[in-house]
Specification:
Number of strands: 2
Distance between the termini: 10 Å
Order of helices and strands: EHHHHHHHHE
Radius of gyration: 18 Å
Largest sheet: 2 strands, antiparallel
Strand content: under 5%
Shape: globular
Number of helices: 8
Structural class: mainly alpha
Number of domains: 1
Strand order of the largest sheet: 1-2
Length: 227
């Protein structure tokens, strides 16, 4: 049996879920605009677009990519202000990977069809095992030189986020496990930098990732062998 199982279809979006996501997003944006909550507009928009993006990924919905690109722009300015320079630079790389992922999901399957969920191969596992520790060590030195707020943790989460995003672009099932590990670190990191809403968003991401593992596993198991 081939490793890749072609699914290639978006899961249906429940109207109740869509309504709940829209209401929650609008509530956060209104609180920021009206001064009810002392958070920046960049953080509020990052919360709104980030939550919608991850929810769409769980649903294997193609629209996660354009929403994610907007999210990258908001977080770029947020992390610039917070001196989390690696996370700031990560948004630039995310933007490029987002364009690639969008195209790959759309026509990266056999004969330029929609891409199905697949498992991480041996070459990718080897690259991750070597690249993550080396990338973290190298980036940490750079962040120390530019007086980053949390050099090691900022470097580690940046590198693991890139690994997660690559696997997501390839629609590998294991992307969720890397996101879960990364989010567990991000939550206390953002709290330490006085970004409570962003920390809360990543707590939501963590729950969504757990749902994503379950949803994608079912989708992968239900698919047939790739042609």
């Amino acid at each position: 049996m081939k490793d890749e199982l072609a699914v290639g279809q978006e899961q249906a979006i429940a109207p109740v879920e869509l309504a709940a996501m829209i209401v929650a997003s609008l509530a956060v944006l209104a609180a920021s605009y009206l001064g009810w909550w002392s958070i920046s507009l960049a953080e509020a928009w990052g919360f709104a677009t980030g939550g919608v993006c991850v929810w769409l990924v769980v649903r294997e919905h193609l629209w996660n990519w354009p929403v994610g690109l907007a999210n990258n722009l908001f977080f770029f300015f947020l992390f610039l202000r917070s001196r989390l320079y690696a996370d700031m630079g990560l948004q630039v790389v995310y933007f490029g990977l987002g364009v690639y992922g969008w195209l790959n999901w759309l026509m990266g399957g056999r004969e330029r069809t929609a891409l199905g969920i697949s498992r991480t191969n041996r070459a990718e596992w080897l690259g991750l095992a070597v690249g993550i520790p080396l990338g973290t060590a190298g980036l940490r030195e750079i962040l120390l030189a530019v007086n980053g707020a949390a050099p090691f943790w900022d470097a580690l989460t940046t590198v693991t986020s890139l690994a997660s995003q690559y696997l997501l672009c390839r629609k590998r099932l294991e992307n969720w496990f890397f996101w879960i590990a990364t989010d567990i670190i991000y939550i206390p990191l953002y709290l330490s930098r006085k970004l409570p809403l962003t920390a809360a968003l990543y707590a939501v991401f963590l729950v969504m990732c757990l749902a994503g593992v379950r949803a994608w596993w079912r989708s992968w198991r239900s698919g047939g062998p790739a042609a």
